[in-house]
């Protein structure tokens, strides 16, 4: 079981909960959790909710299950899909929903297709109603563009009882994230893949400079909203979990923590997730 005593945030052993990761078919659970203390497992495309629960059963103190959305039912807007989601939520075994792919650019090199589902669509309104009803957060993938940021504001206002985690912080600018957090108390953000260890983080609004130093606007955000950020690694394919790549990503996230006040770093590293997910 993960030790939860407070330690020096600069220590490589600092408790970390990864709120945003996936399990590729050729990667073991052990590989994912060997460098973090706990991990939210959001299924790869095609993985069932039952499989996710099986992983949790194997490591109940390390794996945190979310109802998967990268499945046929959501992608094709099948009529019974959200009914099935509610059936899973009724069990009380799932701590959240996601990753709900809305506006996704597509990454051909890893086989990830483009998606364009409005964040304020009727089916997303159904999702946030479920989130409010069962008191679980929903983690979304929504690239920040003028139109999509407007949609995000709409859905946050539509159901204030629902908590939304903005995956990758939308790869938005610090100014946009600040505005959205200021206006919406039911919005949280994660740092998944926002450092420069992967091309995804480098190509649009990275939060660190080339030397790994936090950009000033982002450092200020962590300090202004210490209760609203969480760490994420966003491993998607086996290549992301190859030892050098994964260790580099985890190290980059820990180095981000080392640049903010220790009390804030502990919140971002694990306390916020524990409180939000009632761990």
What report would you give on this structure?
The protein has 279 residues and is an alpha/beta fold. 41% of the residues lie in helices and 14% in strands. The protein has twelve helices and nine strands. It has helices at residues 29-33, 49-58, 72-75, 81-90, 122-134, 146-158, 174-183, 199-203, 216-224, 238-241, 243-257, 262-277, and strands at residues 17-21, 38-41, 63-67, 96-104, 115-116, 138-142, 164-166, 187-190, 229-230. Strands 1, 2, 3, 4, 5, 6, 7, 8 and 9 form a nine-stranded mixed β-sheet that branches. Helix 7 (174-183) links the parallel strand 7 (164-166) and strand 8 (187-190). Helix 4 (81-90) runs parallel beside helix 5 (122-134). The longest helix has 16 residues, at 262-277. It is globular and about 50 Å long. It starts with 16 loop residues before the first strand and ends with a helix. The model is unreliable at 1-13 (pLDDT under 50).
Brief account:
Strands 1, 2, 3, 4, 5, 6, 7, 8 and 9 form a 9-stranded mixed sheet that branches. This protein has about 280 residues and is α/β, with parallel strands linked by helices.
How does the SSE layout of this entry go?
Layout (H helix, E strand, L loop, with lengths): L16 E5 L7 H5 L4 E4 L7 H10 L4 E5 L4 H4 L5 H10 L5 E9 L10 E2 L5 H13 L3 E5 L3 H13 L5 E3 L7 H10 L3 E4 L8 H5 L12 H9 L4 E2 L7 H4 L1 H15 L4 H16 L2
Parallel strand pairs: 1-2, 2-3, 3-4, 4-6, 6-7, 7-8, 8-9
Antiparallel strand pairs: 4-5
Helix pairs in contact: 4-5
